[in-house]
Structures
1.
Amino acid sequence: MRTSQLFISTKKEAPAEAELLSHKLMLRAGLIKRLGSGLYTWMPLGLRVLRKVEAVVRSEMNTAGAQELLMPAVQPAELWQETGRWDVFGPQMLKITDRHERQFCFGPTHEEVITDIARSELRSYKQLPANFYQVQTKFRDEIRPRFGVMRAREFMMKDAYSFHASFESLQQTYDVMYGAYSKVFTRLGLQFRAVAADTGAIGGSGSHEFHVLADAGEDLLAYCPTTDYAANVELAEAFAPSAPRAAAAAAMTEVDTPKQTACADVAALLGVGVERTVKAIALVTVAGEFVLALLRGDHNLNEVKIAKLEGMADFRFASDDEIRAALLCPPGFIGPVGINADIRVIADLTVAAMSDFICGANKPKLHLSGVNFGRDLPEPHIVADIRNVMNGDVCPDGKGGVLELCRGIEVGHIFQLRTKYSEAMNCVFVTEQNTQQAMEMGCYGIGVSRIVAAAIEQNHDAKGIIWPAAMAPFSVAVVAVGYHKSEAVKAAADQLYAQLLAAGVDVLLDDRNERPGSMFADMELIGIPHRVTIGDKALAEGMVEYVARREGEMKKIALSEALEWIQTQTKA
Amino acid sequence: MRTSQLFISTKKEAPAEAELLSHKLMLRAGLIKRLGSGLYTWMPLGLRVLRKVEAVVRSEMNTAGAQELLMPAVQPAELWQETGRWDVFGPQMLKITDRHERQFCFGPTHEEVITDIARSELRSYKQLPANFYQVQTKFRDEIRPRFGVMRAREFMMKDAYSFHASFESLQQTYDVMYGAYSKVFTRLGLQFRAVAADTGAIGGSGSHEFHVLADAGEDLLAYCPTTDYAANVELAEAFAPSAPRAAAAAAMTEVDTPKQTACADVAALLGVGVERTVKAIALVTVAGEFVLALLRGDHNLNEVKIAKLEGMADFRFASDDEIRAALLCPPGFIGPVGINADIRVIADLTVAAMSDFICGANKPKLHLSGVNFGRDLPEPHIVADIRNVMNGDVCPDGKGGVLELCRGIEVGHIFQLRTKYSEAMNCVFVTEQNTQQAMEMGCYGIGVSRIVAAAIEQNHDAKGIIWPAAMAPFSVAVVAVGYHKSEAVKAAADQLYAQLLAAGVDVLLDDRNERPGSMFADMELIGIPHRVTIGDKALAEGMVEYVARREGEMKKIALSEALEWIQTQTKA
């Protein structure tokens, strides 16, 4: 394609509302355009990228034996009422009332619709397993949509759903899909990691997330460089310290901490390590119970883990007023010593193994040192793993490795749903023994539009985007400097362009009448992997200039060898 | 692909709610599955057809210089308020309220969104013309969705929008798009007709519809076999009779018509042609005025034409009670003679040239014969073309031809919108003279999902669908009779299948363990254009059987020549 036939709209600055780098670059490169909150138009250049991602996803889904179909975006409420999710899904579901006052939603996901299809179309074990997928527009009414297409309200998703006569069959397909997902992200040229994941609101048992690794990622991932262990920090197990709790050695003493509320500041004041401190976090359960969670000063609460303890589902953090009412102390100085015996204390495994520790005194501007369970306060009511793992923690797989942490952007998620939906919707089949049985189900999602943003978070520099080969809107840019002034440049550029097209190379000829610097800046911002510059000066010597977007070093090559050179580069 | 890997779900009977043949066949062939009223899932086999249509549409849009983008399905109300269509569009627009109580719609069309993009991205005459298209899911909340995907609520549409610095530029692109549409339907192998059309609610000036010709079509089209004139009957002009009104010759006489209310019955009773009769149709304007329209007995009222007369927009038919109140006569015997002078009479051109005609007497069970304007009743208040053209009418292009009528299914519609939207939304550009001017606009729609149903209406027989080559889900079916029993059949089928795949032929190998009759019936119902049957008996002589779906005659060909034979057939 020629730039003169392509709508290009690059901008020097991104709008102020764009916070995330990928969002800024997508707006500046003119890949997307905002229509409203969480609503984006994919402009011609951006759509080329999106379609390339789609094509790779389709190809691997087909290879994995999944069959493409296309379900409606608009779904009747009745189906969601069968699984109880009409009320449970929450305000993220965009509900719609039609002209006949019937209720629908703009589908945020399609478990109910596909299960409705399966229960009427799949009747016998002979028809199982079956695996269906679609690439489709979905809508989730995020309370505060942001980060562009990374967390848009309307977005493009590949969702697949598999149906099975047995759990073994589900596990087989799950493994095949795990492999297919790995191939998708490998083919797209992305650094990614598959991690064990929490199953959350979708329900079911086993689950893995696929993350594109990037510093801006919302998720924290733990992995072991020496084994294949990898898990979302939400899920990664933290072990108790290997040494048992030491005996009390110090006396409990009040220490003045006039301005020190954070554990690190208290430790610094006392000249000890922060790992000698314990912090208390005040929580309130849905039943209204006030609960105190104890963590080592340098540890962080894992909200997913603690929510799984009895009575803790959907807990919230206590307000300052609630803390004062329960502990008679302002936040910043609270602790587990001397509190009302009715208050449930949940200690992390690490805290339970500590002795002679430092914690808030439950008195303004005071902390306590030399605190010991059993002597200065009762043993905690509950001892459990409620913290996030940290760099250097023992890997939970028991193979002796040590965990490292990194950040990721979730772009894929696979679930073993088991019979959660099939039982609720009576999606049964006739077994070989002529009995009826609920189907085992799996579901498998890829955030197609989010991948585009995630790829940019991982692949960019100060000049703009650096597309991996498989996602680039064009593979090669031929920049013709002086196309409208120099016959020689025009002839050489037109010829190379035609040769590349004939060789099947996805090439963009920049034939605009712009300053060279502006053309280079556009091609760099847009992120085209290979650039050939044709200008009068080099051309006089039969040469053109080649630059790889990622490396950035200019190399002169003979015009006569340019075709072969580019073919070699783009095949690499 | 193999049928063992493809979800096929054919049915002997279609559900009772399916009225239209294409709807029945699509359900029976398992191309679509109903989710709710006007909501259909495209099953794997149906989606293959839909994607083939999409691919042809995309290819021709790209060739025509249109650039693909993808706008959100969900659109903010504010944009529609700018053009005033938020209130005007009516209940077909599916309105949505989000969690923040902001109003949106599920886009029924995208003029507002694309104009919003154009006004911020296209600033100068140098950027014009520009032509953008998308292939996208749309929603129109039809009051009574029916006919399957022919008139679904959620459907797939290709919509393009062009922007211009001048009307001449718009006309050029309009002509290019007219040509591209013709190529699309030609490539899809459909018999179609482009007709001049009314611009309706979208607004603007020139407009053409593209119709797939089929007896079940909702639209009536008029065309001239000897010239290139073609128009929707809504629009086709009917001329006044060439001879002036003859002088009155008969006296006005009451005739008993005890049971005759229809003009044809009255004419039969009197032993004269129905073209001697005049029927009166009672209408009520939006202002509440009672109006009488006069048409020749064998002519039909053209509601689009009469609605364009002053005060007649959005008229409705009068109720029986309103007729009795205004004319003091029951329906069936009403006429223009002796009525209240306040009642406006609109006569068709043909009626105004009639003399000695027959009409209702405005008295129960009586008609009048020998009626004449100017003598028995006043000249009509308005004389205008308000009827549908008929077979044999003079062609309005003045070239002396005669009109014929046929039925069509509207699958495409192109409009010259002019500045209707650009003026309402301040979509202006800077001209070469440095002045500001509203852009000229065109819009161009294709009902992608409707094409699938329309193709079936045009291409079917008692056995099922007969796909045109370009739309077939598979080009060739290799039916292996006894695949699981005969080594020879399996070997021959596998080999031919592999050869066809390698040759790039879109082939389906039917390797199911079913009765031959059932496999043949499925392939015929599904409509695969070419079928090769491999069975033990013919194979013993080195032969296979070939049948073209449309012709239906079996032909034996040598297995060794089967590949070449099929390649020849599929390229034809």
Note: Chain A touches chain B through 46 residues (CB under 8 Å).
2.
Amino acid sequence: MEANNRVNGLEEKIKGPTNPMVTPLLTDLYQFTMAYAYWKGGKHLERSVFDLFFRRNPFGGEYTIFAGLEECIRFIANFRIGEEEIAFLRQCLPPTCEDAFFDYLRGIDCSDVEVYAVAEGSVVFPKMPLMRIEGPVALVQLLETPFVNLINYASLVATNAARHRFVAGKSKMLLEFGLRRAQGPDGGISASKYCYMGGFDATSNVAAGKLFGIPLRGTHSHAFVSSFMYFPLSYCSCILATGTTPGDKLKLEWCLKLGTFREYGDSADEIVDKSLRSSNGSTTCEDFVGLVQSWLNKLQYTESLRGSFGETNQSELAAFTSYALAFPSNFLALVDTYDVVRSGIPNFCAVALALNDLGYKAGGIRLDSGDLAYLSCESRKFFRAVEKEFGVPGFGKINITASNDLNEETLDALNKQGHEVDSFGIGTYLVTCYAQPALGCVFKLVEINKQPRIKLSEDVSKVSIPCKKRCFRLFGKEGYPLVDIMTGVNEPPPKVSERILCRHPFNESKRAYVVPQQVEELLKCYWSGDSGTPREELPPIQKIRERCIQQLDQMRPDHMRRLNPTPYKVSVSAKLYDFIHFLWLNEAPVGELQ
Amino acid sequence: MEANNRVNGLEEKIKGPTNPMVTPLLTDLYQFTMAYAYWKGGKHLERSVFDLFFRRNPFGGEYTIFAGLEECIRFIANFRIGEEEIAFLRQCLPPTCEDAFFDYLRGIDCSDVEVYAVAEGSVVFPKMPLMRIEGPVALVQLLETPFVNLINYASLVATNAARHRFVAGKSKMLLEFGLRRAQGPDGGISASKYCYMGGFDATSNVAAGKLFGIPLRGTHSHAFVSSFMYFPLSYCSCILATGTTPGDKLKLEWCLKLGTFREYGDSADEIVDKSLRSSNGSTTCEDFVGLVQSWLNKLQYTESLRGSFGETNQSELAAFTSYALAFPSNFLALVDTYDVVRSGIPNFCAVALALNDLGYKAGGIRLDSGDLAYLSCESRKFFRAVEKEFGVPGFGKINITASNDLNEETLDALNKQGHEVDSFGIGTYLVTCYAQPALGCVFKLVEINKQPRIKLSEDVSKVSIPCKKRCFRLFGKEGYPLVDIMTGVNEPPPKVSERILCRHPFNESKRAYVVPQQVEELLKCYWSGDSGTPREELPPIQKIRERCIQQLDQMRPDHMRRLNPTPYKVSVSAKLYDFIHFLWLNEAPVGELQ
């Protein structure tokens, strides 16, 4: 699906949503029943303004990354209700609903809608509108559920990614490995997209790599290593297949008793083609398996490494060798299937040194269990010793990736312990936002027919801020954002070097004068329908990611720290403050104490 | 996409996955790098057996609902890697990868794969294989990530739904309202599907209703009510638009001071067409608005209701009246926009009684804030008083729906307090599985080339159970399931009335003899490729839901209780036990204490 809309005077095609399941029916039934009630009452075309915002930052932090905008725009750019959908809606609504309503639905698109939004990838705060949606009330209500769905998880997971990046530090590679544990296929694809946006470097998710151009990373799994495991087949299988014969039983008891029964064959026999061309193509090593074995022997007899390992696991060695033959330029090994220090690392080094003989540089190792701080340090020590002993430049710096249920807390703990990990592969906790799996974005009516609307609640934090508004970020002398401010749409905007009073929207005593050194208008037009208003371009994901990283860098550090961060101030103009409280008093019922 | 496969000898088309984004690329990159390494080493066609299972029940419970099977089967039934995908994979893999590998990928489908699984909707337990996947190792590895993705969230959210049902009790309607807070669009659609499967009655998600035939429910939102709000437009807007003039300021100060300024117009003026035909079509009420108003007056002057309310909110009344005119047979009202007891309920009753005059029965109310136990009881009292006072049969039983951040705990608390809620609308906590947002299903190699494989770990709970296995559920005299047991695939299966030893897979001292009264084989063939093995039908969602409800009913109550439930026993046969420990000793490295 493609649609037209004007960007700075130029026509441009806007693609449909990434997920083709995002259609006008991906909404709550009550949006359609309300649309009917509006239509039936002749109110459906009343011009309305809705704000999309959230009330609390997630994960106990004081900031949020705004994400999901492009998908919203793609959705409305292609918003049409097809015949099949109309037919289904007819079944869902009571038979008394009039035909003309369905004709109305058949005709609607978003040419009469305008969407103003904060740039995707921006750092945002509670209560401020992230999006302002204007249009006929019945239609804009239909957009509520898909918009909130598309923004909520996107912003949540981008924020989670940014928080992981903050703890890991800028020098580390962060890899998103969450597809298998994500909440459904789209949970996985969205996670990959928005984690990249929030500052991750790559994903394991091939589909996301293809859809969004995100770099892909991966090593191999334990299954690959165990597929090379060798043991006495005939013996084992007969026990299960034909029942334990007296002789088998004896043998089994014996091995159980001694606990040391070994009857390994040579796992390396599984490798058929043992030859490997050198990196520059000049020579061919006919027996790479033998070369690896000779390196392993050398390692075993090297004085400085002596005692750290004895006999390594041969099936693991066969698996590594086989993987290196397939990927001589990109040899990566999962080293914890048996024992990292006594088997995985020496086996890896033997293969890496053999590759080095042929001009290849090994890629690195992955640790997926155990004490990652300790194991990474031990691995690094071994790599450095090898570099020194055999004079292989750079060997000490081989990449160490860690995975296994990592999250903000474990990254923080690793930092405190000291570690030698270069890359972190993070899955479950990242993509499911385990620490807080939902963000509470809401979509509130703030004006209809040019009349402001307020949503009251006994809980002050749930009172919505009425009126069609403009939003500004005011920057201080040091370049940090100081405060965000909302004003009525017709108020004069804040100006650089002019003193402006910023008031807490609900707390009378909280107010401050600010003299901004820079003023940024936050809500810009991203969809103007047929109105002709010029609109912002939808930037490519890399640009959004850069914006996000740059905005996070620009924040005052005390807003960003993990422990007791300072809340960033969100305010309203003096006029808007007065107006909120006027409306509030006007609407709130006067209680009677009994 | 459609594919063929034999069901009980008959050819049948199997549709593609519900979400078209579920393609062979929806997998981790390392599945493709491993596939290349297997291929390059000539091992890619080795026949392998993988088990899909989880290690711990979610939500602190002792049971899990297995869900997601149909989507897995739809996926493999249509598994083909297209040219565009091949081209992308070429870019992802190192340029040294040989062309012939891509020819291999081009040719693969799942005709050589077999999938055995527990029936979807079954109650299942840790360590037992939920699925057994057999086929060429390189291909089956490609299936790992999508299978685990499709099963994990589906099973998690179905289990969450079943747990909510358990607390709510069978007599309540449970409505899933989570789309806007779900983790992405597919998170929302999957949630609706699998919550229904786990025992919910309906969803608000229209797309899910269309895709799966799930009943749809919805009322209206606060925005609908506030769109009818009336207040002095000219006055308010001029304050913001043109700045506060001295006169305005005075007026504003005055109203702020008194706090009682009211200048309502008549919101009912917004309603243009005030006529309503009676239910049987015999008469038309020309002024339904007046009829409603007269009922409100009657309510206000009714002795038994006196004192419970005074003047109700007129914009709310206008909104309800308008909604009733649109849906006279399905009038539902959200009654908490202003004040449930003093405004929402009397307004609702006035409209409902006016509808009753015309032969319509009102649908019910929704409470979305405040003390739901108290408010539901007050509402019920009012409804009963109206029934008695005006002799409207059934009015006392009008449906009360509650929503607002409900979860297992709040349902439990409501039960303890006593409430009059008939239906619960549950969103965020249900669909994001807030209490535990991920299930840890894994996919482990248990056999390759007819050789059993074990995945070792220093953590005993992470050791996998090797061998291609059969799984049985043994039932006791009282009809409850007693224990699940895994056996080697060639062992004689457990028989009714025959004593069998069930052993804990890892704990030598835990074992028990069982004489089953009934034996159910758990793993059945759901995909047989070209092998000709007859396979099970994929039942419609309603059947799966029935199975789920029936299986939950059949469980011994102590496994199901929320507080300290008894773990259900999962065991292995004596032979399999011996074999596990033989392999374990054979593979585990012998430590050296230093």
Note: Chain B touches chain A through 155 residues (CB under 8 Å).
